[in-house]
Amino acid sequence: MLISFSGIFFHGPWHQVQFLHSSSIAYALPMCQLAQLATLKSQTHFYSIFKNPNNISKSLLIHRLDFSVTGRFSSTSFAVMATPEAVVKKDVYSVWALPPEDVRVRVKKLMEGLRSEFGGPQFEPHVTVVGAISLTADDALAKFRSACDGLKAYTATVERVATGTFFYQCVFLLLHPTREVVEASAHCTGHFGYKSSTPYMPHLSLLYADLTEEEKKKVQEKANILDESIGSLSFQISRLALYKTETEDKTLKSWEKVAECNLCPN
């Protein structure tokens, strides 16, 4: 199929678009949010669309558009209306503080013991430093590297096993909000431009699940039985990781580590 056009202010490679109400095919910029597709039988009708101010405001810098199609579509003319904003792919990212290997192994064993009885998806032990934020891949990585630069290792200490009010804060190790713990999060959230509606609550989750208050109480008790001294655990945080964390995916199968950095010695 051949397409000729004139007076068009589109730029960039063309992207094939199927019409909504016919078998015709149009070409438009890639990643445009198509607001309207119209099949027109004459150029009189064609131009009348663009003389309507309501439609002009929706066009993508088209002052005059004169599509004609040769070949088997030779009798069809059409217009593509689009919003001016290109759709940029973004994903949800989080920044995690990672415990040292010995603590990781210990906490994972506890997590496995809880999951065997109460269910829930598997995930790596971590302390969330920056909560879920939607970014492009390049922007997320650049912000992560910037946040890691100059940040020093710090100590985290468990206060107690606690319960929360939603899936991602079902049962967790609540950490003491010491100055260095809070400042590490503030440093990173500043680089990411992350704004939270609630004060930072440092914690290391043990179980993700939708449970009743009674069930959460049982998990809390079970955690203290499986590891009696977990409530007084103290460990050094010397690594941060950037994770892709689509919060709509409660299976966590789409979650993946993107990058990791070592913090400066304290």
From TrEMBL:
Source superkingdom: Eukaryota
InterPro entries named in the record: Cyclic-nucl_3Pdiesterase (IPR012386), Cyclic_Pdiesterase (IPR009097)
Molecular functions per Gene Ontology: cyclic-nucleotide phosphodiesterase activity
Protein name, per record: Cyclic phosphodiesterase-like
Gene that this sequence comes from: LOC108662609
A Pfam entry, by short name: CPDase
